[in-house]
Design goal:
Globin-like; globular; metal-binding; mainly alpha; binds protoporphyrin IX containing FE; 146 residues; 7 helices; iron
Length: 146
Amino acid sequence: MSDTTGQPAAQTPYERFGGHAFFERIVHAFYEQVALDPVMRPMYPEGDLTAAEDRLRMFLEQYWGGPTTYGEVRGHPRLRMRHADFAIDADARDRWLHHMAGAVQQESLPEADEAELWGYLVSAAYAMQNIPDDPADAPGIHRARE
Ligand code: HEM
């Protein structure tokens, strides 16, 4: 593809990462782990995770410049609002990220692409946390006693 300047049209991250097949693979690998996770699995009300898998895949495809099916089917993402009913503490957030890291690491993205994708996923997961960290986990203050 080329634009009117004769330069190749800039690829979207969606295309660079590997298009539909890429997102299908990472979201599927992610949900395989969610299905086995004793904290995360009970959060999903539906017995079958297929519909949730489709929603996350469509959302990520749209976010990275691919088809806009998510918006057509679900409307504005409002992701924080849609997560409000789920108790997402630091543990749930880290479990989400752990499963996603496993899925992304199975791919062989160039380093810069992987860093771009991962940076987004980390900040999105932190933004979705809706139960604050426990102040009991804060570092203590240790003064050397004379
Ligand atoms: C931080 C930990 C997270 C937990 C525990 C969590 C859990 C859930 C649960 C239980 C659902 C409901 C299943 C469904 O009906 O689709 C859901 C939906 C969804 N989540 Fe998460 N989520 C987390 C983070 C994220 C992040 C970081 C993203 C995006 C990058 C995301 C994107 C979505 C999307 C797109 C939906 C479907 C929304 C809709 O259209 O109804 N989630 N999540």
